Amino acid sequence: MLTTFGSFVLFLRGMVTRTERFRVLWNRTIDEAILIGVDSVFIVSIVSAFIGAVTCVQIAYNLTNPLIPQSTIGYMVREMTILELAPTITSIVLAGKVGSSIAGGLGTMRITEQISALEVMGINSTSYLVLPRILAALLMFPMLVIMAMLLSIMGGYLAGTLTGVMTAQDYIEGIRTDFIPYNIVFALIKAVVFAFLVSGISSFKGYFTTGGALEVGAASTGAVTNSIIAILIADFALAAILL
Amino acid sequence: MIEVSNLEKSFNGTPVLKGVTCTFETGKCNLLLGGSGTGKSVLLQCIVGLMKPDIGSITFDGTVYTNSKIDIRQEIRRKIGMLFQGSALFDSMTVAENVEFPLQMLTPEMSPEERRERVEFCLKRVGLEKAGNKMPAEISGGMKKRVGIARAIAPQCTYLFCDEPNSGLDPATSIKIDELIHEITHEYNITTVIVTHDMNSVIEIGEHIIFLHQGKKLWDGTKDEILNATVPELRDFIFSSSLVRAAKRVDEETEGGMAAFAEESESGGGI
């Protein structure tokens, strides 16, 4: 475990020493941002809208005390979404989609000697292949989390009003009650940390793949599993430290 | 010229290279010959810097490569072109983009127009001027090898390394690839190192042959000398092919038939 962590640190160090030209990195980062960000919009939208909707309906189902105002449902949807569901669930979804794609892509490049080809040309392969992926993830995860927050709250609104569990007025009143702007900052910090963990762990797993097609599959699975575990540990640690 | 001195490499305590000392001459096709598992590819990977040898030194035209500063190693690496066994073309790029890639990365001073011209020249040189827009998945194994060669020579390399360039190819395509490597070596006066266990390549382009056996260099010489070599391991390797055995028998029966056989292959007849 300690050896693996040491290798991971060395891997990250190699990525930032002898980097490629800024223009090359910029172009690669934009390409990766499209793959990581734009191509994930659909799945993140679907997941976050339905999570917001389900959260709203289930809170309404549990909130039977007539002394508690209906607007509490909107308040709770907002708090749960911003603090936990949008950053964590979105990152877990992206660990599955983006993490497996990064590990699979790099693993295939490794076993087909494409990474060796870069090294022989005198190109720092970690800088060329991994750094843009991590930068793109750091850029796109917060954007996707902001989008997920918005869609989750809208999903809750639609579910609440269309099923008749609460009025639109109550929901809007709830989501405007006792708003703490720091919670948004906290969610974005979490998004950045999760982005680094998902992209870094997946790249590490893929980059050091050895063997053949079977090992590429194993690297993808390992990348997703380890990323999700890392997200959950970091989630707890950040909540304990920053809240 | 590339000089390898007393190179040793082991994996988990198992020695793979046992003090290999050899020289690869400029302007010649240098063949690293040997059976499977004799350390040919490991030696090649040590020379190009993909593996670090345990002991020994590698010198490129007088510049020591092993254990030198990263800047010196980078400088040498940028003069290296390599054709990989599986071609190692970048899947996400077209054939032309693959050839242009080292130019984009290594020669930023070149204008896009100059790069395009160089790509066209290299693709034409390997006979693929019409395949520039194809993806690697859309072309045959032989074409992939030729794209690999075009990519290797695009930045005007000084050293060309080929890891089993004929693997997976039919005999006719293999001969074409061998001829192309041979022509390019002489045209640009580069130092070419080819890892092979193909006797056709030995007869076709073996200007300087180094025979490895169980991690040691047992013999070196030319293609004209190899058939009369007295090293038992080399003779076992060469004459394991019934075709070469038959050719040797004809040579002995006809007194010089083998020379005619070599001449025939040199003039383009092949085996």
UniProtKB/TrEMBL annotation, chain A:
Record-level Gene Ontology MF annotations: phospholipid transporter activity
Keyword Transferase tagged: no
InterPro entries for this protein: Permease_MalE (IPR030802)
GO annotations of cellular component type: ATP-binding cassette (ABC) transporter complex
Native organism: Hymenobacter properus
Protein name: ABC transporter permease
Pfam families: MlaE
Entry keyword annotation includes Membrane: yes
UniProtKB/TrEMBL annotation, chain B:
Matching InterPro entries: AAA+_ATPase, ABC_transporter-like_ATP-bd, ABC_transporter-like_CS, P-loop_NTPase
A matching Pfam family: ABC_tran
Keyword ATP-binding: yes
Protein origin, superkingdom: Bacteria
Domain ABC transporter as annotated: residue spans: 2-239
UniProtKB keywords: ATP-binding, Nucleotide-binding, Transport
Gene Ontology MF terms in the entry: ATP binding; ATP hydrolysis activity
Name of the protein in its database record: ATP-binding cassette domain-containing protein
